[in-house]
Amino acid sequence: MVGNLNFTLDTFILRKLAQELRKKYGDIYEIYLGSTRTIWLNRADMVDEIMLSNNRLAENFNLDEIGVSDKGVLLNRNLDDVMYHRKIFDKTILTSQFGKNITPITQSLFKELESLWKNYGCLEGDKEIDILLWMERLGFECMLKLFTNFRAYALINYYNFLNPKQKVIVPENPLSPIVTEGFIKNLPNFFFIIHHFFFSVKCLLRAPGKRKITNNYLRGKDWLDSNIMNLIKLRKSQIENYSIDELPHHPEVLQQIREELTNVIGTKEDSEITFEDLNKLKYCKAVITEVGRLHTFIPINGRVSLKSVVIDNYKFPANQQFIINAAAIHLDPKNWNNPEEFDPSRFLSSDGDSKNTLMMFGGGPRTCPGRNLGMTQLKILMALIYRKYDIELVDPTAQIKSKYSFINQCYEMKVKIKQRRNIEKEF
C-alpha cells in the first residue's frame, strides 16, 4: 500500500532516488507512490506533449477541500482556466512596463541597504553577515512597493534587530513590523508546509475523535492567493543566492561581468542604471541562466495527461500521472556540453538551449508568469552588487546549505563584503 510514498516526505531523497533509477533503468521508468503509478521522464524530447497542452495537475483531495484547485495558475487543474489567467498576466506583469517600474524601485531600496550595511560596519571585508537574510528582505520590499506602493521597512527593522544599540528610526509604517518580520522569517517554510499539507487534510478528516479547526489554521483561498506572488520573489532570491555562491569560485566569470558592466553602465559606481541598460547586459543574463540550469529551482514537476499519449514508443492512457525530472534534463550530456561545468558562455549563442532543455521558469501554460520581472531584477541586483563590491564566502570549501521542500532552497549564505577601490583604474 505504501510503496515509495514515504520518499515524497523528503524531496531531497526523492530526487536522489530518481537519479539512481535513471542510471539503472534509463530515461523513462515507473515508480509507485502508494497505489499511484507515476511515469518519470528524464529527457527533454519526452516532455513536449505533456508540458504544452495535454496536461493538468494531479488530483489532490486536500486542495479540493480548501477550494484552490480550480483557481489561479499555480495549483489550478483546469487548463482552460489557467489559460484565461495567463492572458491577464500577459497584459500585466509580463509587460516591459513592470520591468521599467521595478528598476528605480530596486535602486532606491538598494541605496537604503548600503546605508544600513555601512552603519553596521560590514563593508570593510572583516565582518560576517548572512547575506541571504538581507536579500530576502530587499526582495520583499521591492515586490511590496511594486504591487502596493507601500513600504514595510523590513530592512530597517532587521538592522535594528541586529544592532539594537544604534537603532534607525522607522518611518510611519502601514504594516506592523511584527507581521512583516514574522512573514519573512517563515517564508522559507512556506513550500515545506504546502508540500506536507497535501497529505494532511484527508488524514485530519479521517482521524477518530473530535477536533476543533479554527480560522488560524485553515485560511483557504484568500491566504493562498496572497502567497502566489511569493513564488516569483522566492525563485528570484534563490537564483540570486546561488549566484553569490558560484561567482567566488569563478573569478574569470566575475571579471567578464564587470567588463560588461563597465562597457554598458560606465565606471561611476553610483550612476543610475536604466531599463535600457539592463537589456544590454547579455553576459549577466547568461550567468543568471547558467545558475538556474545548475541549481534547478523546482527539480521535479508533476503533470497528468488529459488524453492518451505516446512517449518514446510507449502508449499511456488518459489520467496517467507523469513526473518531469527537470534537474536531470538540465544535466543531460545529450543537451549540454560538459553539463556539470559552470559555463555561462553556452547561452551567448542563439542555439544556447533547445526546446525543453531549459526549464528555469517551468514550461508550457504554467511557465512562471513573473519570469521577465524576475530576470530584470536579477540583472539589476547583479549590476548593483558587483560593480561596487567584492563578496567573499566565509568558507569557500563548504557545501552550500540548501534543502528540498518542493523547491531547491538555499537557507544560509555567510559572506564578507568589501567595497572595491579605484574601479576606474581596473579597466
TrEMBL record:
Q: Name one Pfam family in it.
A: p450
The highest taxon in the source lineage is Eukaryota
Q: Is Iron a UniProt keyword of this protein?
A: yes
- GO molecular function terms listed in the Swiss-Prot or TrEMBL record: heme binding; iron ion binding; monooxygenase activity; oxidoreductase activity, acting on paired donors, with incorporation or reduction of molecular oxygen
Binding-site residues for heme, renumbered to this chain: C368
Cofactor list? heme
Under the heading InterPro entries, the entry gives: Cyt_P450, Cyt_P450_CS, Cyt_P450_E_grp-I, Cyt_P450_sf
**Keywords for the protein's UniProt record, in alphabetical order:** Heme, Iron, Metal-binding, Monooxygenase, Oxidoreductase
Family the entry assigns: Belongs to the cytochrome P450 family.
**PANTHER family noted in UniProt:** STEROID 17-ALPHA-HYDROXYLASE/17,20 LYASE (PTHR24289), STEROID 17-ALPHA-HYDROXYLASE_17,20 LYASE (PTHR24289:SF1)
Write down what this protein is called: 6681_t:CDS:1
Q: Which organism is it from?
A: Diversispora eburnea
